[in-house]
Design goal:
Elements lengths: L4 E5 L4 H12 L3 E6 L2 H13 L4 E5 L5 H11 L6 E6 L14 H29 L3 E5 L12 H21 L5 E5 L8 H5 L15 H14 L3 E2 L3 H11 L3 H11 L5
Parallel strand pairs: 1-2, 1-4, 2-3, 4-5, 5-6, 6-7
Helix pairs in contact: 1-2, 1-7, 3-4, 4-5
């Protein structure tokens, strides 16, 4: 019997890598997508130890032509994708007036546009088979306006709301859709955004990439719409969801002053 196939974007490190390896260990073959071909090859080699065959697609998801390339793989009915993980994304720390416009546009393209188009392609393909799963990675930052991380927090708020709505749209087709909203997870993401690995946060606010991967895949398996890994992060998300807008703005401004 053929092994089911999972496609993971941002699979070359961090949360994406851990999700890929957990899926490999649970009996899935993989399609690994990221910008760095050498790192994709490394992850593919690790997945092979678990018995998984891997395809790699080198793609920059800020570029429409590369998004189309991944869409084409998702819609290939000869090699159906059973699980799509939209993990690719990044953020840039700094005041909006200090960041270049092209970089902000690329951030939106990766975090919002690519995720939307790949989710659409996957749901269209999965709906005809009446099965499948889509896992979209948001962030705890999606619950709060975050000065200094303004675009990132806003794009992740989009991911969360988009995925929650898609969860309901997909139900009649038997497709599971889950949003995972991790808190601060030490990965290569921080250096790219201009943050330190610890960002001055206490250890109880940190969640490992492997824990995020485990919790996210369990939530997808169980058909949950939203999961926030880590008890303190989950409590924070609940608290933030109940706060009035003016307090959220003030809390975001205070949070942006933490050491980087």
């Amino acid at each position: 019997m053929a092994r089911p196939i999972a496609l993971i974007t941002g699979a070359s490190s961090g949360i994406g890598e851990r999700i890929a390896l957990r899926l490999a260990s649970s009996g899935h073959d993989l399609v690994l997508v990221a910008r760095r071909g050498d790192e994709l090859a490394r992850v593919a080699a690790l997945a092979a130890v678990a018995g998984a065959a891997s395809e790699t697609i080198v793609a920059d998801l800020s570029q429409g032509v590369d998004v189309a390339k991944v869409e084409a793989r998702i819609t290939d009915e000869a090699r159906p994708i059973e699980i799509l993980v939209n993990n690719a994304g990044y953020g840039r720390f700094g005041k909006l007036t200090e960041l270049d416009g092209a970089g902000e546009a690329n951030e939106i393209a990766v975090n919002v546009t690519a995720l939307t188009l790949l989710s659409r392609a996957a749901l269209l393909a999965m709906a005809s088979r009446k099965r499948g799963g889509i896992l979209n990675v948001a962030s705890l930052a999606s619950f709060i306006p975050f000065p200094g991380f303004t675009t990132y927090a806003a794009t992740k708020a989009y991911v969360r709301h988009f995925t929650l709505a898609l969860h309901e749209e997909a139900k009649p087709f038997g497709v599971k859709v889950t949003c995972v909203a991790p808190g601060f997870t030490p990965t290569g993401f921080q250096e790219r955004g201009g943050l330190s690995q610890s960002s001055g946060l206490p250890s109880f606010l940190l969640t490992s990439a492997d824990t995020v991967a485990r919790v996210a895949l369990e939530a997808l398996r169980d058909g949950r719409a939203l999961v926030v890994p880590g008890w303190m992060n989950a409590l924070s998300a609940r608290f933030l969801s109940l706060m009035p807008s003016f307090l959220l703005r003030r809390m975001g401004a205070i949070s942006s002053r933490f050491p980087r």
